[in-house]
Amino acid sequence: MAKLGVNIDHVATLRQARGEFDPDPVEACRVAVRNGADSIVCHLREDRRHIQDDDVVQIRKAVKCPLNLEMSINPQIIKLARKVGPDYVMFVPERRQEVTTEGGLDVRRHFRRVQRAAGDIADSGIVVSMFIDPVQYQIREAQEAGAQIVELHTGKYANARTRAAQDRELSKLKKCAAYAKSRGLIVHAGHGLKYHNVSAVARIKDIDELNIGHSIISESIFTGLASAVRRMKKLVS
Prior knowledge:
The chain is α/β, with parallel strands linked by helices. Helices cover 48% and strands 16% of the residues. The longest helix has 20 residues, at 163-182. 44% of the residues are buried.
């Protein structure tokens, strides 16, 4: 049974739209955990467009379940992560002009930098995760660079316009999840997953956790965050 990680970035997006104090991402974490979230995910971007440094500090203090901090390999953010001590750090690619993360980290291309960053994080007792496309060589490179967890990018599956294309992407996810598991890695998956398309990915036996944010926060506008989390948890599990 897959676990559910709830990403609360877009609670902070709404707060930052007015530059005020609500809605509070920390309270969103508490609601999510009370209603079935197995972990909390947040992305501290270099441009601080939603989650802020103090959010990470306060979430770490307030939430007792695992905290998964998404981040680039920026040295200043690595320094903060080592100080705060999330349970996991997930390295993701980041471009300032992108609306959301557009694909997996190219570990092969940036191997030495990623390996150094992973070493810095691991030295602080934090588990290293890497967000990668469902490609076998990226799984190998991620493990060699120091990843203990790989999160498979599900964006192409989520955005597939035809059943045939969706099936192709689902097959890639299944094969890569099995391959990563066979190498001793923990496998997570996420990006673009919604209520209508999550079940097929949740049924992949080698995936341990799905990390989902935007669709849950969007649904919460109409039904409330507690209900939105419970509904997604039921689909995932």
